Amino acid sequence: MTPAQEPLLQVEHLRVELPTRRRTLVAIDDVSFSIMPGEVLGIVGESGAGKSVTGAAIIGLLEPPLRIAGGRVVLGGRRIDDLPYEQMRHIRGREIGAIFQDPLTSLNPLYTVGRQLVETIRTHLDLGPEAARERAIALLGEVGIAAAAQRIDHYPHQFSGGMRQRVVIALALAGNPRLIIADEPTTALDVSIQAQIIALLKRLGRDHGTAIMLVTHDMGVIAETAHRVAVMYAGRIVEIGPVRAIVDAPRHPYTVGLMDSIPRIGGVRGRLKQIDGAMPRLGEIPPGCAFNPRCPLVFERCRRERPELLPSASGAAACWRFAEEGARAADG
Amino acid sequence: MIAFVIRRLCQSVVVLLTVALIAFALFNYVGDPINNMVGQDTTPAERVALRHELGLDQSFLVQFARFVGHAAEGNFGLSYQEARPVGQIILERMPATLELSFVAALLALILGVPMGIYTGLHRRSLLSQAMLTTSLVGISLPTFLIGILLILVFAVMLGWLPSYGRGTVVHIGWWTTGLLTISGWKAIILPAITLALFQMTLIMRLVRSEMIEVLRTDYIKFARARGLSNRAVNFGHALKNTLVPVITITGLQLGAIIAFAVITETVFQWPGMGLMFIQAVTFADIPVMAAYLVLVGFFFVVINLVVDLLYYVVDPRLRIEHEHAAGG
């Protein structure tokens, strides 16, 4: 990556709201990040932190009544969050591919995988039925399905879970997109297969120069795969930066907690650490820093004011401790 | 696949035998056929002779076996009322009922499925709300009332359509059809609407709820995420997945349409099997009643068999399992 390169995707101050009968809840609040071409960005956080909603907002498939209430999504210099449905449709699959969590339910049970692939290919690329079928077979081979020329005429239920996720990846790649949003792509799979799928994603991203936004709650997967990582908590990014820096020296107390809760081979034996308490539900987010009730390092200011992302040497973290440190450094 | 068909055929035979038993039991429990056939001045000796001649003095099982044997040949004996073979009477009446049922079922499908799709896709639209509210009428009003209301408006007040009968019919072999003449078409409109209204609302509500269900599934979300057109997603992917339950219900309802044509046919004096059945009940014409029961049972069984076979056409998961079963 050269510094002069333009980011492929820019998300700026994205805000997603959930209007309810009584009041409007904020699902995503002021989320900004960018992805460079070919880069793997990990988005990590607990269930309900807003990771998947961020992904859905980018491809314009938020489930009503969820809606984008502010901010911009820019893909390759073109604003896409305000496009009409029909124009956005040509971006989905063609520019941005998507992979969902559960491969068992992601494929239409009534059609062969070949039919679903050919349909997707012909939606986006100007190919005849024969050429589309050839591309479909090539894609299946590329995602590691043996005897692709025969398997193409099989129905989804004739594939195992791991194989179906490979088919899903082939479908996401069908339109040759520049970005793939992978929402928990390995969560529903056996541990032994998870590693294969992650390795496949990494290889395909590298081979095709496809950027990947990898949404997961598994810090281990991120550490292996991503170039940069954004940690989300209660609808906001609390820390973002290069994956090595964050894994080696997490700054936000929540990230520290996440890192401590990963079991390590060869580490000191003992109970795994956990973060006490649970993430607040939408509408019950406390004033100040959303993490303050669970934070071991909480002090007065955290309960009053909400910290913004403050840049540091390697990335940025939204925590008052660094503001105080910065202020002290400036004073002294 | 073949094993499945054979198994279903065996089940069908059991069902039909049960229906036949009930139909046959009518002979013994609904009135005395001899009383219906003879005049008041017949002597007891003549009655006994007639009873013997008709085989009514034999044991229940023998009579039932004979009934089933004859029924299998389409021979249901003589009508008490008309003293003609019942099979012949039914054959004369069947075209009218089948045509009416067919037109009604087609009407229900042609209107019900698109309305169901529309209300499923545009749940909040005003038109959907209007259709759903109207459909409550179709579900809650009894058939005879709808028929009478239609007659009142279109036959009596407006005078556009006939209020009874089948219009001019054309004979094609033993089959008579009203669908080749204008007066036949005019005559079939009101009864067909009456018969179709309930089925149409049922199909519409079924398709709607299935569509809503399917549109929530992951494979529909994934299809949208791949940028497929709305038409491909809604009709290619969603609609086909709603078909299995819709085929089941539509099939069963087709049987119900044929069976419940009784009321509509009575209201419109439609010369079909339903009207024949009502007339037979009034005269305690048991052979006709029994034949009608068995015939309706037969229709239901055949329709169910066809429905089961259609599952295989629609859902590949069933096909494959059976290929495996056949191979292994």
Q: Tally the helices of chain B.
A: 13
Number of domains of chain B: 2
Helix content of chain B: over 70%
CATH class of the largest domain in chain B: Mainly Alpha
Major sheet: arrangement of strands of chain B: 1-2
Oligomer: heterodimer
Radius of gyration of chain B: 24 Å
Overall pLDDT of chain A = 85
Helices and strands, with pairings:
The complex is a heterodimer of chains A (332) and B (328).
Chain A: E1 9-19, E2 24-35, E3 40-44, H1 51-58, E4 67-75, E5 78-79, H2 85-91, E6 96-99, H3 103-106, H4 113-124, H5 129-142, H6 148-151, H7 161-173, E7 179-183, H8 191-208, E8 211-216, H9 219-225, E9 228-233, E10 236-242, H10 243-248, H11 253-260, H12 300-304, E11 310-311, E12 316-317, H13 320-331
Parallel strand pairs in A: 3-8, 3-9, 6-7, 7-8
Antiparallel strand pairs in A: 1-2, 1-4, 4-5, 9-10, 10-12, 11-12
Helix pairs in contact in A: 4-5, 5-7, 7-8
Chain B: H1 2-29, H2 33-37, H3 44-53, H4 60-72, H5 86-121, H6 126-140, H7 143-157, E1 170-172, E2 175-177, H8 182-215, H9 218-225, H10 230-267, H11 273-282, H12 286-314, H13 316-327
Antiparallel strand pairs in B: 1-2
Helix pairs in contact in B: 1-12, 5-6, 5-8, 5-10, 5-12, 6-8, 7-8, 8-10, 9-10, 10-11, 10-12, 11-12, 12-13
